[in-house]
Amino acid sequence: MLHILLGQAASAAPVGGRGSFLLSCSEGLAAFPTPEMAEAIAVRRALTISRERSFQRIVLVSDCLALIQRISSPVRDRSILGTVVGDIKALKMDFQSCLFRFSSRKTNVVAHKLARSSEPLVCKFSVDVIPEFIREELCNDVA
Q1: Between the N and C ends of the chain, which has fewer C-beta atoms within 10 Å?
Q2: Under 8 Å CB-to-CB from 47, ≥6 apart: which residues?
Q3: pLDDT for 3
Q4: Long-range contacts of 129-134 (CB under 8 A, 24+ apart)
């Protein structure tokens, strides 16, 4: 099972179910949207990356409860987030299992460090190697 921690500014930090680090992605946005829109973009990006890497069972963890509720709702979202939420719901269908969970911001430190490290219009990937600036937090999460 792949666990994905999300933070604003379109970042994702997937960690393998057995505690092994798989990849991280930090992607800055040209213009900073609302925090909820930034989180929705991060979810969409994480799902796209997960699909490209052929992951089948994932859990996405976010500190944005309103977004988790929008994604989980069977009702079509007609808000400004509607298009991105629709994309997320469509991408979700590509996985054997895709769960969305809420986590308070205090327990989502790695994702927020990744988000703060992002640069506008730059996508940084790290595969199988933990970026130094999140190593300590990941080690604390595993301990």
Answers
A1: C
A2: 58, 60, 88, 91, 92, 94, 95, 98
A3: 47
A4: 129/21, 130/21, 130/24, 131/24, 134/13, 134/24, 134/110
Residue 23 contacts residue 116 (beta carbons within 8 Å): no
Domain segments of the chain as ranges? 2-138
pLDDT digits (tens, 9 = 90+) for 73-84: 999 999 989 999
Instruction: State how far the Cα of 37 lies from the Cα of 40, in Å rounded to an integer.
Output: 5
β pairing state of 123-127 and 2-7: unpaired
Question: What's the predicted TM-score (pTM) here?
Answer: 0.71
Distance CA 53, CA 32 (A): 27
DSSP string across 20-39: -B-EEEEEB-SS---HHHHH
